[in-house]
Amino acid sequence: MTDAGTPTGPITRGSVARVGVATAITALCGYAVLYLAARDLEPAGFSVFGVFWGAFGLVTGAAFGLLQEATREVRSAGYTEAVSGPRTHPMRVAALVGVGAAAVIAGTSPLWSGHVFVASRWLSVVLLSVGLAGFCLHATLLGMLAGVGRWTQYGALMVTDAAIRVVVAAATFVVSWGLVGYLWATVAGAVAWLLLLIASPATRAAARLLTPGGTVTFLRGAAHSIAAAGASAILVMGFPVLLKATSGDLGATGGVVILAVTLTRAPLLVPLTAMQGNLIAHFVDQRADRLRSLVAPAAVVAGLGALGVVLADIFGPWLLRVAFGEEYRAGGGLLAWLTAAAIAIALLTLTGAATVAFALHRSYSAGWVIATVAATLLLLLPLDLQTRTVIALLCGPLVGIAVHLLALARISAP
């Protein structure tokens, strides 16, 4: 075993480029899985798949709290003097958390699975439980690689996960396995961390790192990050589940809305999610200028998002029909508003990463939880499905952003 030590890889253009390339490949793989599923399943069937895809995204999104805490702990250890005292092995903690989380999902499934999964119910529960256990280790390993700046291995782990999913989805499409095959494809990448540990000595070295403080200290920080990441996952990957819970039977219209939401947010949120390690490491390195460190990444997000709004309005309806079939129809105005909502969630993700980096765990979780509660309440408005979806995804995150910025402003004040 070794201590965390000084970060070996600063945030440079090269490191961002490597993760950027991996992110682009990961996004393409994600689009490929959605494309194959949408072409293979009619809109009503795609809505069933979309709910499982969202459910897995929800639970693994919560597990990203482990990535955030592992990154912060490992990175921060490089800026502190060596001290005696207890040490924590994050990968062992992740294994315990993963097994515990899987047991909770399986044990409570009789209470909720019938309301969420309308087909292949028990297979969905098993895949969700086992996939989450593996992803806890996956996310923690990503965090430790980010903490020590092993960006090549970080990117390789992302790409391996995404590539495995696409291979299983493509095989499902070819052999006409149907819905069950796409359920397996959704969780198949959860073994990627094990494959990279076997293949990469640098990854094994990062996985052996210890962080200052005991297990309870690590879990206390991780608990806030997991709570906030779980709330963020509801708005991001788990939104189809929230939509179904507040709407009942989604039907074909729900399938179109779920696909539209997924496609309009992916160009911004897939890179931001994939680059959580880069962002947290960047904010830790810039801890002397907390609010100012947000300006450049926020400007990039807003600029790219504004371009996306225009493109979604002009080309979105055509692209949706051509790529996924005539059954998938949505107006340009809806796609533009959903893209604007994606900007809001992307900025909330950005401010959240900054609060984690500065150890503002309570404010981080409060921002995301309040945003999720606000979005949920807005989904209950007596409006049509498309209108309340846009209002919830646009207005809910704005409340969370305000919470994060107030917390950052307080600690930045002289």
TrEMBL record:
Residue stretches spanning the membrane: 19-38, 44-67, 93-113, 119-142, 154-175, 181-200, 221-243, 255-274, 294-315, 335-359, 366-383, 389-409
Source taxon at top rank = Bacteria
User: How does the protein associate with the membrane?
Assistant: Multi-pass membrane protein
The record's subcellular locations are: Cell membrane
Q: Does the keyword Cell membrane apply?
A: yes
* Protein's UniProt keywords contain Cytoplasm: no
Which InterPro entries does this entry report, sorted A to Z?
Answer: Poly_Biosynth_Transport
* A GO CC term assigned to this protein in UniProt: plasma membrane
- Keywords, ordered alphabetically: Cell membrane, Membrane, Transmembrane, Transmembrane helix
Q: What is this protein called?
A: Membrane protein
